Amino acid sequence: MEPSSVVDRALTEVGPRLKRLRTQRGVTLDALAATTGISKSTLSRLESGQRRPSLELLLPISLAHQVPLDELVGAPEVGDPRIRVQPRRVHGNIVLPLTRQPGPIQTYKMILPASRSTPEPRTHEGYEWLYVLSGRLRLVLADHDLVMGPGEAAEFDTRLPHWFGTTGEGPVELLSLFGRQGERVHVRARPRGRD
Question: Is the pLDDT of residue 187 over 60?
Fold first, then answer.
């Protein structure tokens, strides 16, 4: 359905909705006019559809009835919010992009096979945040060699030599947020043994 037809339909339903709300509450046009400061004739034309609703008219009515504005307007239904992702194989990993549009931060769910266990550090522009969902993730970052388990997170500047994979014991499932330089999530992992 075209956006303009959705808006037109929503606007034509406002009048009957206003009348139904007012009569269900036992409020007369005179009483509503006195409460809102809107003339009785304007209220009557709104309810009959002879007057196009505007924000200036609907806000006082919303306040008088103590209902949210979208209840008066009958905001259109939002489309299906589910994201239907197609997994891709990238260098032997299963990658599911969770971000639907280009933007400063991209989100991925990744499944790394147990065979991805030989570090091959690389560098590039950006910032990365990792969250381990299952398995044991090995993160090599500059001079650090860390093993992370489920529920642990790390963030780092990707201009540092880095690599992440498995310990070789089994696959790892993780979430990855990658952003251009300066986009940070502010969750940090500590090397084991530090308080």
Answer: no
> What's the mean pLDDT in 120-145?
94
pLDDT of residue 190: 56
The rounded distance, in Å, linking the Cα atoms of 121 and 143 is 11
What are the tokens at 21?
A: 């709300």
Burial of 107 (0-12, 13-18, 19+ CB in 10 A): middle
By DSSP bridging, strand 105-112 and strand 88-90 are unpaired
Is 101 within 8 Å of 120 (Cβ atoms)? no
Q: Which pLDDT belongs to residue 11? A: 82
Query: Sign of the C-alpha dihedral, residues 19, 23, 24, 28?
Result: positive
Distance CA 111, CA 24 (A): 56
Instruction: Kindly give the interhelix angle for 40-48 and 29-36, rounded to the nearest 10 degrees.
Output: 110
Which H or E run includes 114?
none
51: Cβ contacts below 8 Å, ≥ 6 apart: 42, 45, 57
Q: Which residue has 């790390």 as its token pair?
A: 154
Q: Which pLDDT does position 186 carry in this prediction?
A: 47
Which amino acid appears at position 164 of this protein?
A: F
Which amino acid is present at 151?
Answer: G
CB atoms within 10 A of CB 141: 19
